[in-house]
Design brief:
Elements: E1 14-19, H1 23-26, H2 41-53, E2 57-63, E3 102-105, E4 117-119, E5 126-128, H3 131-137, E6 142-148, H4 150-163, E7 167-176, H5 184-194, E8 198-200
Parallel strand pairs: 1-2, 1-6, 2-3, 6-7, 7-8
Antiparallel strand pairs: 4-5
Bound molecules: pyrazine-2-carboxylic acid and zinc ion.
Residues 63, 65, 71, 79, 82-83, 106 line the site of zinc ion (ZN).
Length: 207
């Protein structure tokens, strides 16, 4: 049995944000399967339990696209068709412990990767999701982020969280990269650390 003792310090002012743990990313048969995406789920579930035990909020995001959007390669973007709203691929992975609100992004065809904001692919206008309002209403000051994928939605959500004034941690063992280019995941982690995000569980680089 594997035990997960990672304790990032949950309390009532902290929210655990689990990003896009959906079939299309986390299931090996998903349309945009992230290597090892399902392997993080036991750790995520133990984090959900630890967060709830300490009175922390747990919230989930879903990438939630219309069937046709400039986000998809066939409509001018870069991605295979994935997470089309109300399909199997868009559902949260069945092994994930879901106990908290879910925020959907991309709903009107927007392109943003962050759980906090969406970007109109034609006008480039940014608009917020409900996530910031939800966290402010719960008096959250700190967020702990894990999920998929390191180099896209985890990165964008974490960078937005810092900009919005939250103390922000990312669980290094609870994320996996798409790695469209080799090293994208590592570069995203370095960028997050530079932005003031605490990377929890990351072994120190050898001196
Ligand atoms: C994501 C690529 C396309 C993500 C979403 O959740 O990281 N990546 N859409
Ligand atoms: Zn997407």
């Amino acid at each position: 049995m594997t035990t997960h003792l990672l304790d990032p310090g949950y309390d009532r002012a902290t929210a655990l944000l689990l990003i896009d743990v959906q079939n299309d990313f986390a299931d090996p048969g998903g349309a945009l399967a992230v290597t090892g995406g399902d392997a993080i789920i036991p750790l995520l579930n133990s984090q959900v339990a630890a967060a709830h035990a300490s009175g922390a909020l747990v919230a989930y995001t879903q990438d939630w696209h219309p069937a046709s959007t400039p986000h998809f390669a066939r409509d001018g973007g870069i991605w295979p068709v994935h997470c089309v709203m109300a399909t199997w691929g868009a559902e949260l992975h069945p092994n994930l412990l879901v106990d908290g609100p879910t925020i959907r992004k991309g709903t009107a065809g927007e392109d943003g990767y962050s759980g906090f904001s969406m970007r109109d692919p034609v006008t480039a206008r940014e608009s917020p999701t409900e996530l910031d309002g939800l966290l402010r209403a719960a008096r959250i000051e700190r967020v702990v982020i894990a999920g998929l994928a390191t180099d896209y939605c985890v990165r964008a959500t974490a960078l937005d969280a810092v900009r919005l004034g939250y103390r922000t941690s990312v669980l290094a063992d609870g994320i996996r990269p798409v790695d469209l280019a080799p090293g994208d995941g590592e570069r995203a982690l370095a960028e997050m650390a530079t932005a003031g995000i605490e990377v929890v569980g990351q072994p120190e680089a050898p001196q």
